Amino acid sequence: MKLLFLAAFVQAQNHDQEAMAFCNNYCQDKPDTHYPDTGFCLNGTYLNPKDCSSYFRCWERGSVGDKLFCPIGLVWNDEYKICDWPYNLDSDDECYEPLK
Fold it and tell me: Could you give the CA distance from residue 98 to residue 100 in angstroms, rounded to a whole number?
């Protein structure tokens, strides 16, 4: 049992701490987005509410998270789950920027 805990602890240290905190906590108060037994986010890709140019990927039943970055000039489009040009977002999205 101690070896299993140690292996999980070492694995968790190699992941972005912001992403780990997000996957472990963000979905707890959102219906149908978390595992009922832990409250962790469902496996999947999520917008970063603090940064338009990055996003989080939660996996291992939400116990592990990684932060990924869009290429320069692109932002996370949560509707299509891709990095996209800011002018392709809905105009009411906080990351939207009109084409200049």
Answer: 6
